[in-house]
Amino acid sequence: CLLMLAPVVAAGMAGLRVDFSILLEPLGFAKVLEWVFAIFAFATCGGFQGETTLLVSCKGVVNKTVTAAFAYPFRLNTVEFSAPDPQGCGGTWTDVRLVGNFSSSAQFFVALAALMFPYCIAALVVYMRYNHVYQQNNKFPLTDMIISVLTTFLWLVSTFVWAKALADIKMSTGASIISGIESCKAPGTTCSFVSVTSMGILNVSVVFGLLNMLLWGGNVWLIYKDAKLYNQWNRISESP
């Protein structure tokens, strides 16, 4: 944000005007979409809450429901199943936790989405109030394009890292967890998988990550064309 705003503010406050028509042009409209899609990526991942439910029968307990509630940032190894009864199935039930810590992948994805909020707002302020300065000074479009290239790469990395983590989260909270629970292997104890909260909203977060990547990638070309960097590059290449 500072890279975009500081040089413009230094250029002076004279002749300021807000041009909302820029929002209808490809460069401004793309920035609005990037801002909106970043919000959706943030909300669909960072606001998730769910639980895994098992049905347990053991000493003195018949078909008791036990649950493990989990949420962003998905530190599953800290999530514990509730005990089937206060006596712990006659002493055969020990603390049972989910497996895996996926916080780094989830937080990387959410942090990138959160950082896009102020940058998109700053860019829109530059487009609407300082567009004449933006167009006249090649440093601003060039800085904007470099940031867009970097952001495209970060969205690519964070989305694929988060998609892999999401696949592992589904494995760690699905029916396959029963085989790894030692308490369920105790004599006289049976466990069956009941359900896990639908993670469709997390699938949507991956889709928004991909859309953000495509938007920022397309934004590089829009900046290149709108700021007339294309013509300047041609003149440079044609010069002796």
Automatic annotation (TrEMBL):
PROSITE patterns: MARVEL. Keywords: Glycoprotein, Membrane, Transmembrane, Transmembrane helix. PANTHER family: SYNAPTOPHYSIN, SYNAPTOPHYSIN-LIKE PROTEIN 1. It is a multi-pass membrane protein. InterPro entries: Marvel, Synaptophysin/porin. Its main location: membrane. One of its GO terms (cellular component) is synaptic vesicle membrane. This is SYPL1 protein. It is found in: Membrane. It comes from Calyptomena viridis. Residues 22-228 form the MARVEL domain. It holds the Pfam family MARVEL. The chain crosses the membrane at residues 108-130, 142-163, 201-224. Belongs to the synaptophysin/synaptobrevin family.
